[in-house]
Every structure is written in structure tokens, then in C-alpha cells.
Write a structure and sequence with these properties.
This protein has 167 residues and is mostly beta strands. The radius of gyration is 21 Å and the shape is elongated.
């Protein structure tokens, strides 16, 4: 008698179908992601499934599937791809308020001398950057197998964000 939804603000809400009351809500912390890698409406994907017996809510987020007991809402297990939750070493997270600093004369000259890519080169470079993503493996979807004792998951590496559709 439960229904669950994952929202783009990285929260999960579970309702009791009979009463419409919120049975539980929880959220995941905003992961350290370089915002430049996201398109305008991109969000981290969250996938949800109840076990066949209805006693477990499984939540896929980033590289892990978190299993929650629906009676206590305690996390009973985490299934994860070890090490796949780390950012690529060359990614530097853009701070919300970047600090502006004046360039040296040498840096300014180097910027002027840098060749300007044509449209094809710039598009190709942007596509390659997006394909590499941030280095994390993300769970896109998963299913409980018959009987509920096995989970089948699909993963993505590279640009694996979900898009929100407004309107």
C-alpha cells in the first residue's frame, strides 16, 4: 500500500496509498559535480523499486543501490560499484561563487596567442568532454529478479544525467 517518487531535488517521498499520508521522506546529499558538465535541465538520476514482497524499497543513486526496510526505514544494505563514486582527477568542481583574480601579463598574452578553434573543432571538443563526464559510474535503472533475491542493474559511464521536463 505504498507509492514512492524520486524528485529532481534528490529527495524521495513515500506515501500510503490508503490515506495519502507521507509515510517517509529522505534525501541524498548533492554530489560534488562540476556544474559545467550539466545541461540546463540535467539532474542526477534516482531510480526506485519495491521488492516483490513489498518489504524493501531499493533506491539507485550514483554508483549504489540502497536497500531500505519499509517498516523501520533503516538502510539494510548498499550494493555499489567500488571506487566508481570518485570524480575524475582532472575535474575541478566549480564553486558556487568563483573567486575572481587578475591574470598576469604572461597569462593574458598566452590567452591571446591561443589558437581559436573553428565551429567543428569546438563542437567536437565539447562532445568529447560531455562523453567523458565526471568519471563516476551511475546506476540508470535496476530491477528485482523473480523472487526478489537478485537485482539486475544497468550502469552508465560518461554523461549519464537525467533531464527534467518542466511545463
Amino acid at each position: 500500500d505504498l507509492a514512492a517518487v524520486a524528485l529532481s531535488d534528490l529527495s524521495v517521498r513515500v506515501w500510503r496509498l490508503g490515506s495519502g499520508q507521507v509515510a517517509h521522506k529522505f534525501s541524498f546529499p548533492e554530489p560534488e559535480t562540476d556544474r559545467r558538465l550539466l545541461l540546463d535541465n540535467d539532474v542526477e538520476p534516482i531510480s526506485l523499486r519495491f521488492s516483490p514482497d513489498g518489504k524493501t524499497l531499493a533506491v539507485g543513486f550514483l554508483n549504489a543501490i540502497h536497500l531500505f526496510d519499509v517498516e523501520t526505514w533503516q538502510e539494510t544494505m548498499t550494493l555499489a560499484v567500488v571506487g566508481e563514486d570518485k570524480l575524475r582527477p582532472d575535474i575541478k568542481v566549480t564553486p558556487p561563487s568563483p573567486e575572481l583574480k587578475q591574470r598576469t601579463a604572461e597569462e593574458a598574452q598566452a590567452e591571446k596567442n591561443k589558437p581559436v578553434p573553428n565551429l567543428n573543432e569546438a563542437t567536437k571538443a565539447e562532445f568529447e568532454r560531455m562523453e567523458r563526464g565526471d568519471g563516476r559510474t551511475r546506476i540508470l535503472s535496476f530491477e528485482f529478479a523473480r523472487g526478489g533475491s537478485t537485482i539486475l542493474a544497468s550502469y552508465c559511464s560518461g554523461h549519464c544525467h537525467a533531464s527534467t521536463f518542466l511545463g
